[in-house]
Amino acid sequence: MYRYSTTNLNHLVKNRKECEPGLFHLTGSDSDEKVSVEIMLHISHSMRSITISSNNGFTDLMKIKIAARHISYRTIFHTVLILAFLLPFVFILTAIVTLEGVNKCSSIDCLGRRLGPKLLGRGDDSERYLADFYTILNQVHSEEVPEDLKIPDNFKQLVSEMKINKYNAKEFALILKGMMERSERDIRESQFQELMNKHFAATSIPKGIHCLSLRLTDEYSSNAHARKQLPSPELLPLLSDNSYHHFVVFTDNILAASVVVSSVVQSSLRPEKIVFHVITDKKTYAGMHSWFALNPISPSTVEVKGVHQFDWLTRDTVPVLEAVENHDGVRNYYHGNHVAGANLNVTSPRLFASKLLARSPKYISLLNHLRIYLPELFPNLDKVIFLDDDIVIQRDLSPLWDIDLGGKVNGAVETCKGEDSWVMGKRFKIYFNFSHPLVAKSLDPEECAWAFGMNIFDLRAWRKTNIRETYHSWLKENLKSNLTLWKLGTLPPALIAFRGYIHPIDPSWHMLGLGYQNNTSIESVKKAAVIHYNGQSKPWLEIGYEHLRPFWSKYVNSSNEFVKNCHILE
Q1: Membrane-crossing residues (predicted)?
Q2: Distance from the CA of 356 to the CA of which of 99, 160, 549, 561 falls in 20 to 30 A?
Q3: pLDDT tens sequence across 24-69
């Protein structure tokens, strides 16, 4: 709050001879800022001039000269009175500029800051300096940083070199640009390195899971109970009984298979009606058989079979799969240098991550392609539900068996509709290379995609189609084109092969993205019937998302001695 006081004007005028040199004071102070301002009114002895001055550097604010003629005291009194009325306003403007400077601005302050200096003859060069600096920055933006320019390593070094070298504004801007460009390169390299490390972590086998497989395989050879027939002889007829609910899982991950089976059984209202068909590869068969033999899922039924036990499934009868695993281009793509050929300067980390996901070696596994042979694998079954090994069932799936597919083959959740555009924004243009003439001619880029992972297959309707032949045909074309039609695994050829045979089901049955979407809604996860950890961050890996892992880990049999001895999830 500014305060000001004046000397008695009448006394001043009447006693001007006593006022040497004839002063009239206007003083003000601010209690918070501890600053005072004094404005002085100087009247000459001859009464022919009046000068207004300040004690804060603003001298001679105003000077009034009076003509050399007789002036009455009344006239002088009125003149001084008018000046006394104006002085508080001059004082306020001066005080505001003095106390607050030119860097602050409010509705009242701006008036003093902008008008005050102009009235008092002061200029404000800050805006001009800023405009000049912007001009220099625009010039530097279009210039390349010289290769021989020495770039400081940190801010402290920058300040030190500025003091020593006395950089001008343009030199400073160039150095600043060089520092920022170097930081951006370092950040991008770190991001890509992180993605590479995550890719290797996702494609490796955790020590605990490898331990579990070895111990159970050893148990198969040494323990007769681990080798008992699955299912028992009296339950064999159930394997082809269409009144039961048949679930099929293809996997070489024993722990993951145990979670899928346990979650289905525990979530079912009628577990006695469930029959599981677990199909694995030859190297995992003994360990997988041991697990389910030693950990029965009664009252449900489970069958474990190895690929080697299907007599008709040979390299001779499935030549395309032989080509996929042995094709040099395929092997180089999935097992070669993942960075070679990738322009990291123009590739975004997100795009690079999706390309790494497409290079997962599982996509050339025979086990991963077996789903296209479901009608041949189960010739006596009419309908099955296919489950991936990275899913968890949280709700009874019995209603799925009552869905009328309307003559279609595949009941699946479409992935082009939903609030999350990253997970549920998938159309054909995401999976296929539409710059290729064959793709551009045959497919619609805006056609909606769908998800593997939880699918209802009508095997009777399937057997009446040429889905498998179409699948094989497009696989051959992609191999001929050196993998230029698509890059990602088994879904693209399946999207083509099942065109016209998809029956969309409600998205609440199958929630996707828990393996690559960190900000997944927990409430949505709780409501979903099936949650799918598709992506790199599987729940059994250290790179899995901690807040999503409990939905999976609660179905792990932590009391099992093999699980405990292999320190799984510890």
Answers
A1: 75-99
A2: 549
A3: 454 554 444 444 545 565 656 555 565 656 555 444 445 555 555 5
User: Which tens digit of pLDDT belongs to each residue from 403-414?
Assistant: 999 999 999 999
Torsion angle of the four alpha carbons 456, 459, 464, 467, in this order, in degrees rounded to the nearest 10:
60
Q: Measure the CA angle with vertex 27, ends 25 and 32; round to 5°.
A: 175
d(CA 208, CA 565): 9
How far, in Å, CA of 56 to CA of 98, rounded?
Answer: 8
Res 5 pLDDT > 60: no
Distance CA(180)–CA(140), nearest Å, equals 13
> CA angle 52-55-61, nearest 5°?
30
Class of 204-566 in CATH: alpha beta
Please enumerate in sequence order all residues whose Cβ is within 8 A of that of 26, keeping only pairs 6 or more positions apart, or say none: 4, 5, 6, 38, 39, 40, 41, 84, 87, 88, 91
CB-CB contact of 284 with 344 (8 Å) = no
Burial class (CB in 10 A: 0-12, 13-18, 19+), 292: buried
Contacts of 31 (CB under 8 A, 6+ apart): 1
Dig out the tokens for 458 from the structure: 């009508």
- CATH 3.90.550.10 boundaries in the chain: 204-566
Distance CA 256, CA 295 (A): 14
Q: Is the dihedral of CA 340, 341, 344, 350 positive or negative?
A: negative
| Dihedral, 541, 544, 546, 549 alpha carbons, nearest 10 | -70
